[in-house]
Design brief:
24% strand, 7-stranded mixed β-sheet, alpha/beta, Rossmann fold, globular
């Protein structure tokens, strides 16, 4: 299993969000950093996973199992949502099995090693938010349109949810996606 640490931001212990980054897109990168800040501002306890060595698909899945249902899982009485990016979305089938709502940023929908993610994404309920860009080769807009999940599809955005060489557009995308995540988290109630 890949080694990881969990960085904790205290908030309401009854409302917990777990952030699962990509392999190269860490929890310090813009989408996850601002998501972390926004949900913390809303009072959520935030747990952000950080890789301490480079994960493989198999080691990442083992780490996600440990964080979501194993020894590092939050209290079972807490409302728990998952926010995952790229490699982190390998946790999608496990989250569905555990009944955990989730935000799935640039999920790996077209990778042969992640067919379970593709199958789970096609059948998501309204307790999930899928976010991807039309220029991302790992995104499949037709597939996600068939699920019951909320979908934010960003025109011309790549796997980082950015449009090359367009800072103003990228800031607008960041704002749109973080606002969608805040709305999603708010749909599970605030105190």
């Amino acid at each position: 299993m890949s080694a990881y640490t969990l960085h904790l931001t205290d908030g309401d212990p009854a409302r917990v969000v777990t952030i699962l980054p990509g392999s190269g897109y860490t929890a310090m990168a813009p989408l996850l950093w601002y998501t972390r800040a926004a949900l913390s501002d809303l009072g959520w306890s935030v747990r952000a996973l950080e890789w301490t060595d480079k994960p493989t698909f198999d080691s990442a899945r083992a780490a996600f199992a440990q964080v979501l249902e194993g020894a590092d899982a939050p209290d079972e009485d807490a409302l728990h949502i998952v926010v995952a990016k790229s490699l982190g979305t390998l946790a999608l089938p496990l989250a569905v099995r555990l009944g955990l709502p989730g935000v799935w940023l640039t999920p790996v929908l077209t990778n042969e090693g992640a067919l379970d993610v593709r199958e789970a994404a096609a059948d998501l309920s309204e307790d999930h938010l899928l976010v991807g860009g039309t220029a991302d080769p790992l995104w499949d807009g037709d597939l996600v349109d068939g699920s019951d999940a909320d979908v934010v599809e960003v025109e011309n955005a790549d796997h980082c949810l950015e449009v090359p060489n367009d800072r103003a557009e990228n800031l607008a995308i960041l704002d749109e996606v973080v606002a969608a995540i805040e709305e999603f988290a708010g749909s599970f109630g605030e105190e």
